[in-house]
Amino acid sequence: MLNNSNRRLGIGLVTLTTLMFAVLDTTAKWLVLSLPVLQVVWLRFLTHSLFSFAVFAPSMGLSLVRWHHPRLQLLRGLMLACMTGLNFWALQYLQLAETGAMQFSVPILIAVLSAWWLGEKLDARRWAAIAAGFIGVLIIIRPGSQAFHPAILLSAGNAVLYALFNLLTRRLASQEHPATMQLASALVSTAVLTPFALWTWQTPSSGWQWLLLALAGLSGGAGHYFAAQAHRFASAAVLGPFLYQQILYMTLGGWLVFDQVPDRAVLLGATVVVASGLYLLWREFQVKTESPAV
Fold first, then answer.
1. Cβ contacts of residue 224 below 8 Å, gap of 6+?
2. What pLDDT digit, counting tens, does each position of 55-99 carry?
3. Mutual orientation of helices 4-32 and 70-91 as an angle, nearest 10°?
């Protein structure tokens, strides 16, 4: 049974998750300004794979690489490779706050996909929150204005894939161990990207680049690990709102490392997107609470 102490531990772990993913995006943005995107993505997943083996293999042994649904694991790994590639590519041109704000449209997209694909019923209030969320996305994108940058479409594509990725993760979560799932996606991504990374290979010119490449992989692996552990101690309804603090860390990283401050449109759009996502999370929890037990 989940008690207050467990919830606090879960919240602390999910806070570490958001911090790790913000570090990953900040280091990735710095790296892709001087190194090929596919090389950075590949090294991120290679380091992630090595990290996962080192952490989980001693206790899990061969069960760590035992997949119950290999086709779905392969699909999930391909999706993660594409998502990360689109995100890192977008980071070459956009501020961290912009890509972060687009990522937080994922709960809105999940709600839409769940209604369309899984046949879930949404009430009028949730549809209104979804509509408001998409208005927030349009405020960030600003189509047709001089502030519009085509790279924002890469971030939008990443968000759509991320929503599908989350739905697939939900399906596998009850049948696959969390450590197996996150390692499988990293291994598949590493294998798929290897020929492309070697084709575009550019040897890092400094120890600093090597250090940041390692940091990107370690922060990505640690982020997935902390996320999996957080759900052992608290429910998704408890943890969901705390995921949004990542936008604060990404904005801070953009300011400290790149001297970039988001403009008013990005701040307004991000506020609308986050508020819509938080409402959807809250409403989902309320509906589940109100539903009669069967």
1. 48, 182
2. 888 888 888 888 888 899 899 999 999 999 999 999 999 888 888
3. 60
